[in-house]
Amino acid sequence: MQTAEIRIEHLFKSYQNIVALNDINLEIRQGELFGFIGPDGAGKTTLFRILSSLMIPDKGKASMMGLDVVANYKEIRKKIGYMPGRFSLYQDLTVEENLRFFAGVHGASIEDNYHLIKDIYSQIEPFKDRPSGKLSGGMKQKLALSCALIHRPKVLLLDEPTTGVDAVSRQEFWAMLKKLREAGLTILVSTPYMDEASLCDRVALIQKGTIMDVATPDSMIAQFGFPLISVRSSKMNLLLDDLKSLAETKMAYRFGDAVHGIMELDNKKMLIEALLNKGHEKIECETITPTIEDCFLLLMQTKDE
Amino acid sequence: MKGFILKEFLHILRDKRTMLILFGMPVVQVLLFGYAITNEIKNARIGILDQSNDYVTQAITQKILSSGYFLAEEIMHHPDEAEDAFRKGKIKQIIIFGPDFANMMTTSPPVSIQLLTDASDPNTANLLSNYTQAIVQDYVRQQQQQAPNLPVIQIESTMQYNPELKGVFMFVPGTITILLMLISAMMTSISIAREKELGTMEVLLVSPLKPYQIILGKVIPYVLLSFINALIILLLSATVFGMPMNGSLVLLLLQSMLFIFMALSLGIFISTLSDSQQTAMLLSMFALMLPTILLSGFIFPIENMPMPLQLLSNIMPSKWFIIIIKSIMLKGLGMMYIWKETLILLLMTVFFIGMSVKKFKVRLA
């Protein structure tokens, strides 16, 4: 059992009458690549801000590396790298000036810590004289990550680093995070993209300020507990409602260009017959392995009940 | 820290709008305000030196004082007192009657009244002098109706400190004040608000930078730029308009530094109150620019304002700085005469710095 690098106990936070965090409890180990998965407004940013000492929780305690985020905020600020959800570099400064500035702010120099950011920074180095505001989304995030890393932090907090970034850059970004984790960093990432969950060591599914589940992506999928089918037919517009109306359907929703059904029973034959009765033709129906998104939707449904 | 200051300079130098405001504004404003604006006169404080004190001089004095334009602040007895009263800045004009006025009027006409006017504010000076002359003329006309062969009274009007009545002499101090206020206060407040708006404040806060480092890093570039600006305006006013520099240049520059610091701390204070550049801009406009222009005595003489506004003008830092600049540049006065104004500015600076340190948040909202 490794020591808990980050410990969160009964954390509450609300803005006026909106509850942003509702009794969050969590332990994150040293060296983990931990993902917070949830839609916009789930409370991810609030949690990151509390952990990075930018906000004070209403109730509860949180500590990082044994330091309390409220009382020892000065210490914590020296040891973390924080990348806010919004692009937060100086857009009128060039790539290199930004990096130099953030290194200087932490009393570090680019030269000393270049090896840390080499893989990432070398990709944007050809544009080092370009104002950072004129970079593409992916490059901006790479620069922001470089800036958050340049002072050799122990814990990296990345708030939605891949939002608004193209698919290729997202892949590259995650590849970098894997490398950084191998170097021993504890990394916390939040993302609204469910498909990124499988890239983390462990994920927390977060919704309306509560953590619904914490597990490794694989075990989360293994614990799904219901047969999941993906259905297509000639009358896609009616399919969702018709599927929902079946007694053995626990839950149904659109998923990409198909409809997913979480069933009480794994009986495809019966299902196809029922749909044929409702006038559907060319029915394609297959049992599939759930994704994290399916897990999320099921958990949401269970919580609501 | 060094990196922070460098970064701040880069922000300023890269932004064309900022540069335009920083260096285009002084030129435009000095030239614009270089032209006079007419003011009204009410209850101007004057001194009277009556060396004969006979029926004629008393009648004229009465007529002048009952006009409603003038108020006798000081009755003098010796010519030497005149200079001193001006230096104290209590009075705007002195009316001097020579000895044995009534007798001279009949025995050796024409007699003359001497008029000394403080022309560091040329519009007021001109008006005061004209009003006085008109009143004396009116008196003579009335007397001549009774005794047609009564001689004319001549008026020798002398303008002190600004004999050429150059309007720019009055506007340069005002312009320096406004520009320093604008650059120092508005620019700093906007630049801090910009960090908040663009989210970069979040990153700065998470860094180990201490609040005072952030504040100083913001302030130092603007101190330098504002100082350069002050020099530009002074140079411009000296070369283009021939503004005199009667006092100590060193003292003037030191006082400017003090005022710049005051304005900067005010700017930081504003920025702690505003979350966006727009709020900072509006706050600076309404809280700084308008009062500075309207209430500092720059355009409208404070003496002519209604009482509540006169009281309000006392909390305008610019009012005190304008007094200081005028005293040094036009009257050539030293520290002895302006210690009170200096002290007020100093206290204001301390107040704003204290308030902003108290208000500066080490966390987000």
Notes on the protein architecture:
- The complex is a heterodimer of chains A (305) and B (365).
- In chain A, 35% of the residues lie in helices and 28% in strands.
- Chain A has helices spanning 44-51, 73-79, 95-105, 110-124, 137-149, 167-182, 217-222, 236-244, 268-277, 292-304, and strands spanning 4-15, 18-29, 33-37, 59-64, 67-68, 80-83, 155-159, 186-191, 202-207, 210-215, 228-232, 249-255, 258-263, 284-287.
- In chain A, the strands form three sheets. In chain A, strands 6-7-8-3-9-10 form a six-stranded mixed sheet, sandwiched between helices. In chain A, strands 2-1-4-5 form a four-stranded antiparallel sheet, covered by helices on one side.
- In chain A, α3 packs parallel to α5 (137-149).
- Chain A is globular, with a radius of gyration of 22 Å.
- Chain B has 365 residues and is α/β, with parallel strands linked by helices.
- Chain B folds into two domains: 2-33 and 166-359, no CATH class; 44-160, abc type-2 transporter like domain (abc type-2 transporter like fold, 3-Layer(aba) Sandwich), CATH 3.40.1710.
- In chain B, α3 links the parallel β1 (44-50) and β2.
- In chain B, α9 packs across α10 and α10 (249-273) runs antiparallel to α13 (317-329).
- Chain B is elongated.
- Chain B starts with a helix and ends in a 6-residue tail after the last helix.
- Chains A and B meet through α2 and α3 of A and α1 and α8 of B.
